[in-house]
């Protein structure tokens, strides 16, 4: 069956709003290392890793063996009404890595569920439905997480279970404050935060939730130290800080294990998902015990933290730590940033190169006025695919190429990717 035939079947039974990449969508049927092969036999270097989910890469023996060992017991599922050894072992490890004193962990199936759980905890703890979020943010596709998503392209409904207000600071490239030095930029954003609290809320806000680097928003971020300055203000009001680490966790940013650590602060809670399972469905919340234990009703997660996913996640986390992939993310990220900035000197269409570690973005603009250029972005994404490289796309205006390869990326593969990207830009001439 061709991709075109499969696409016709897909359109007949899947929602219209389920977006697919490329002029002719592809099916990925095989993978090894950092490369995947589609249903028609074409192999690609993967620079999006299932939206940052295949953090270690494909066909990793240590992870596959851990899953097979669990399957061999005959137990794929028991539910959280029973103890699950791998779940406990993984929770202990994450709690220790979190830096949150006496941390507790709750597992879910996805980042959306993790953020929904965090919202439930924070609003219950503070007995308030008021939430602060960042402009240009994305936190999931659930009812609560859509409500706190500050990106119109991903906000499907104005209905909301929470009262949300948005603050400035996370998308600097098109911010009205973009030309300010870091310290002044932080100051005006802090002033805005305080003004939002004082003028648009009742004061007793439950939490502020923020991505240290915005994912769907185009890998954008404010200066390091922004969220530490925010937390000083939040602490005055007793407002909790939740760091959405669904995309920034597990050392991907290179300099730090958690994205929020770049801001030299410890949040009240962090949410996580994606890369932890290297393709297996897992997410969760790690928080202070006071916040985690604030629910006054029974709860559980039928599939969250199941034996298969936690076995895969524990093996993934051990592999990541044993091979110091955080350091590799820093090295290969630096190589890619240097290469992309070199390309930006040749092509004015590459308006901004940003990100950290192996979480990088190229914002594509119209050279005459620096306005967003979604059409050229789509062309470049297609051109890289035609040359054997898969990259993501995002940003508020759909004009950002997102690059987040597996953290096992080699120097040679990074060089190969840069050559493909340069060749793709050459098609604009």
TrEMBL record:
One of its GO terms (molecular function) is alanine-glyoxylate transaminase activity. Its cofactor is pyridoxal 5'-phosphate. It holds the Pfam family Aminotran_3. It is an enzyme of class 2 (transferase). Keywords: Aminotransferase, Pyridoxal phosphate, Transferase. It comes from the Bacteria. Its EC number is 2.6.1.44. InterPro entries: Aminotrans_3 (IPR005814), PyrdxlP-dep_Trfase (IPR015424), PyrdxlP-dep_Trfase_major (IPR015421), PyrdxlP-dep_Trfase_small (IPR015422). Homotetramer. PANTHER family: ALANINE--GLYOXYLATE AMINOTRANSFERASE 2, MITOCHONDRIAL, PTHR45688. Belongs to the class-III pyridoxal-phosphate-dependent aminotransferase family. This is alanine--glyoxylate transaminase. It comes from Kribbella pittospori.
């Amino acid at each position: 069956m061709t991709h075109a035939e499969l696409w016709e079947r897909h359109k007949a039974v899947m929602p219209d709003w389920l977006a697919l990449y490329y002029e002719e969508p592809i099916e990925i049927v095989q993978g090894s290392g950092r490369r995947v092969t589609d249903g028609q036999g074409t192999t690609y270097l993967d620079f999006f890793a299932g939206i940052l989910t295949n953090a270690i890469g494909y066909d990793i023996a240590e992870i596959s063996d851990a899953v097979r060992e669990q399957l061999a017991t005959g137990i794929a599922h028991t539910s959280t009404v029973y103890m699950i050894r791998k779940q406990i072992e993984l929770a202990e490890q994450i709690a220790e890595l979190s830096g949150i004193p006496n941390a507790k962990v709750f597992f879910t199936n996805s980042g959306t569920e993790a953020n929904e759980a965090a919202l439930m905890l924070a609003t219950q703890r503070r007995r308030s439905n008021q939430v602060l979020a960042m402009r240009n943010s994305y936190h999931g596709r659930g009812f609560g997480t859509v409500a706190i998503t500050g990106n119109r392209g991903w906000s499907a409904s104005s209905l909301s279970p929470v009262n949300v207000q948005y603050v400035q600071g996370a998308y600097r490239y098109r911010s009205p404050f973009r030309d300010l030095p870091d310290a002044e930029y932080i100051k005006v954003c802090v002033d805005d935060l305080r003004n939002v609290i004082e003028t648009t809320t009742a004061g007793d806000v439950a939490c502020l939730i923020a991505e240290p680097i915005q994912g769907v928003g185009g890998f954008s971020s404010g200066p390091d130290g922004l969220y530490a300055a925010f937390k000083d203000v939040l602490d005055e009001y007793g407002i909790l800080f939740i760091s959405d680490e669904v995309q920034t966790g597990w050392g991907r940013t290179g300099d730090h294990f958690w994205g929020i650590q770049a801001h030299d602060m410890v949040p009240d809670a962090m949410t996580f998902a994606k890369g932890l399972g290297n393709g297996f469905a897992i997410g969760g919340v790690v928080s202070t015990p006071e916040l985690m234990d604030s629910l006054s009703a029974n709860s559980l997660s039928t599939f969250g933290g199941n034996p298969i996913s936690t076995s895969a996640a524990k093996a993934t986390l051990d592999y990541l730590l044993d091979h110091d992939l955080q350091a590799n993310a820093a090295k290969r990220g630096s190589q890619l940033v240097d290469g992309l900035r070199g390309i930006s000197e040749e092509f004015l269409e590459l308006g901004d190169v940003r990100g950290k570690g192996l979480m990088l973005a190229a914002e594509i603009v119209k050279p005459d006025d620096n306005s967003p250029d979604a059409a050229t972005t789509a062309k470049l994404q297609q051109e890289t695919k035609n040359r054997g490289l898969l990259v993501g796309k995002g940003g508020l205006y759909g004009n950002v190429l997102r690059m987040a390869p597996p953290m096992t990326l080699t120097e040679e593969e990074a060089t190969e990717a840069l050559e493909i990207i340069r060749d793709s830009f050459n098609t604009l001439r």
